[in-house]
Amino acid sequence: MLPITQYKTILFDCDGVVLNSNFLKIEAYRLTALQFGASEADAMKLVNHHIEYTGISRNIKFTYFLEKILNQSVNDISMSHLLTQLNYQVERLLEDCEVAQGLATLREKTKDSNWMIVSGGDQEEILRLFTRKNLLKYFDVGIFGSPDSKEDIVARELKKSTAQRPTLFIGDSKYDYQVAKKNNLDFIFLSEWTNFVKWESFCAENKIEIYRRLEDLNH
Q1: Phi first, then psi: what are they for 91, rounded to 5°?
Q2: Which of 70, 118, 142, 200 is the most exposed place for a label (fewest CB within 10 A)?
Q3: H or E element: which one contains 92?
Q4: Would you say 25 and 19 are in contact if contact means Cβ atoms under 8 Å apart?
Q5: What are phi and psi of 122, to 5 degrees?
Q6: pLDDT of residue 9
Q7: 142 and 36 in contact (C-beta within 8 Å)?
Q8: Chain centroid to CA 128: how far?
Q9: What is the 8-class DSSP label of residue 67?
Q10: pTM, two decimal places
Q11: How many C-beta atoms surround the C-beta of residue 104 within 10 A?
Q12: Is 189 strand, coil or helix?
């Protein structure tokens, strides 16, 4: 790992890194499933799938929900209904969610770096939320999310002049680490807001550098 000031590009996951939103997102998935007509048991199956695959696009999760949990076919009407309802629940629940401390200090500390969000969350949803929370100013390269996958976003953006190496990815999930490793990026795991139950053993096994929260990178 390099000192953080030496990275030309820094990628940030959103949920659990910039926003304390992982557990609010879990509730949003549960409420969306119930509103769709699922039983509490089936809603919890979707929740557990969401937790296991944190960072994966919601389109993929809802395909699993329809096909594997509800034994229904995937069609545009069902998918649109689920995505619209989840978007409503997420924006409602995240309106007052906690923002990471120390963002402004870290941005000043790494003023020569390009910053971007790489999220499994809906891109337009994040843009609206970050606009209301006055966070867009920090991420000069852009806000990227689903329907594109993190893998596709990172592979695409790394080809641009705004994503020069050395590059650091800051995340809080197994998938974040896998995307970073696949693209030969340095990686930092933030533990305080993660919903990854086995993060300690996973980080130890893969020799991942851990910080509790984003503001700790300022020290």
Answers
A1: -65, -35
A2: 200
A3: helix 76-94
A4: no
A5: -65, 130
A6: 97
A7: no
A8: 15
A9: I
A10: 0.93
A11: 11
A12: strand
